[in-house]
Amino acid sequence: MKDMNKMLTFLPLVILAIGLIGWTLTLRADVTSTTDKIEVLQEEMEDIHDRLEALEGTISLIENEQRSIMADHSGFADVLAELGKAGLLPAGERREYGNYGK
C-alpha cells in the first residue's frame, strides 16, 4: 500500500514533467520556425531595396528626359511666337505655347 501511495504522489509530477518537456520542445520548434521566416523576410527586403534603387535610377533618367523635352518645347514656343509676330503662321493659328516651367 505504501508503494501505491508513493506512486500516486509522484504520478502528477511525472505527468507535469512530461507536459513541460513537450511544451518546451514545441516552443523551440516555434522559435526555430519564426527565425527561419525572419531570415526569408530579410532576404526579400534586400531584394526590394535593390529594386527600389533601380527604380530611383530610372526615375532620375525619366526626369532628365522630361526636362530636355520641356526645354525643346519652350524653344519651339519662342520660335512660334516670333513667327506669329512676323505673320508667317496660318491665319487661324491661335494656340499659345510656353509656360512649361509653371
What does this structure look like?
The protein is mainly α. The chain is built from 1 helix and no strands. The protein is rod-shaped, with a radius of gyration of 39 Å. The mean pLDDT is 86.
Helix tally equals 1
Structural class: mainly alpha
Strand content: under 5%
- The helix content is over 70%
Return residue spans where pLDDT drops below 50 for at least 5 consecutive residues.
none
Rg from Cα: 39 Å
Characteristic terms for this protein:
102 residues; mainly alpha; 1 helix; rod-shaped
Compose a concise summary of this entry.
By secondary structure, the protein is mainly alpha-helical. It is built from one helix and no strands.
What is the topology?
Blueprint lengths: L1 H85 L16
